[in-house]
Amino acid sequence: MLVISWVISLYTLWQMVQMHEIVPGKQFDQYHELGQYAFGEKLGLYIVFPQQLTLAVRINIVYLVIRGKSLQRIYEMVCNDNCRFIRLTYFIVIVASVNFVLSHLPSFNSISVLSLAATVASIRYSAKYIYTTRDEL
């Protein structure tokens, strides 16, 4: 299913690139602009906006849970059974709070170094997790 969704995303991206300037002088840089061109001003938004909103909410939920689990795992590795148990919910709330603070920064350029560090940490954690659980898979 993941491969199918990736192929669909890649295909829609290719379509958007092909339709970037299908009307001379008018650039379609966002999906809702393409929807408005294809289906009209109101219907285009009614078709595209709910899908984009649903996708954004689902992706955000998945990322919050994954980051919360990662933070919980780091906490468990650092404590070495010397600390008390903290539920996953609290780690998700911590991550959501950090997201809330970062969302109020003026632009992504303000957090470019943090974004790079998070990417490297995510890749390292994923590699370590796969390496340590390869016998269970």
TrEMBL record:
Q: Which UniProt keywords apply?
A: Amino-acid transport, Membrane, Signal, Transmembrane, Transmembrane helix, Transport
- Biological process annotations from GO: amino acid transport
Which positions make up the signal peptide? 1-19
Q: Where are the transmembrane segments?
A: 43-65, 85-102
Q: Where does this protein chiefly localize?
A: membrane
The cellular location(s) given in this protein's UniProt record come to: Membrane
Residue intervals of the Amino acid transporter transmembrane domain: 1-129
Family matches, as InterPro entries: AA_transpt_TM (IPR013057)
Which is one Gene Ontology cellular component term of this protein? membrane
Q: What is this protein called?
A: Amino acid transporter, transmembrane domain-containing protein
